[in-house]
Amino acid sequence: MSQDEFRDMLPGHAEFQLPEPPAPKKMNGRRPVPEKPDEQLAKLEQTAEPEAAAGDVWDRRVAAGLAFLRRRLAGAYEVDEFGFDPELTEAVFHPMLRVLYRDWFRTEVFGIENVPAEGPGLVVGNHSGTLALDALMLTVALRENHPRRRHLRLLGADLVFRVPGMSELARAAGATVACNPDAERLMATDQLVGVFPEGFKGIGKRFSERYKLQRFGRGGFVSAALRTGTPIVPVAIVGAEEIYPILADLKPLARLLGVPYFPVTPTFPWLGPLGLVPLPSKWLIQFCPPIPTAHLTEYADDPLVVYNLADQVRETIQATLHELLQKRPDPFAR
Fold first, then answer.
1. A single Pfam family, by name (predicted)?
2. Per-residue pLDDT tens for 45-60?
3. Which of 18, 235, 260, 325 is most buried, judged by most C-beta within 10 A?
4. Residue 54 sits in which domain range?
């Protein structure tokens, strides 16, 4: 019997096996190398990608901002004959207004398909809100919702263009004086023009008269539309009446300051500058079907035709206001 056979006969020897030696631990200097470097590397790459993407976004924003400043300082931008600056409007004015439009007023828009996709158009709306924010929100609504992202060229009162600083800002944003010659020139160049025939009577009326349209004046906007054959698009705006509810009008103080009215609201002038913060009402904007005027150009100077057409626009807006108020029973609903 050999020595190996003898060892195999010993009890427990056949089942006994020497343990395998442990795998040597890989070292990088004095630090052990991770057992699964590929998985950890993949995780690092996954977390690095969003960070890199976020960094790229901010890099692009900073680069775009610096390029914008260079163009402004060098005067390398264009304005039209009325002073409209599309770049400044898109880069500065509208981003600020969108915060009010989307988050503060939670605006909903209906009937945007009634606004012409191209060519001239005269958008006629009701006016309210003490500070005429409805006009600004209307420009944002068209820019945000219209398929062609059209700019609205507002017609403003003389007072706007007599205030130092405000005149330049208004013209840069696309506004001009509310007069027939300017309106007709804009529409003759296929612009979308916005007008509020109630004027100061609309934005200065008391809260007790909310959503009751005031007189539309002499119908000058109708004459301008008739002379150029421009379709008239009535628009009803609900929500502006509640942002600064006018409880009283201090007329002696208004005359002293040379303004149409001096409003007293639940927050102004009691809270000082904080009283200028608008209340967060819910806004609804409805564009009504356009009223064609191309077949009535020869009646631009006929007072009867002008008055009847202006009255038709007014009644359309008033009826639409009642419909929107039924859709929005709570003025401050989400």
1. Acyltransferase
2. 566 566 556 667 888 8
3. 235
4. 49-78
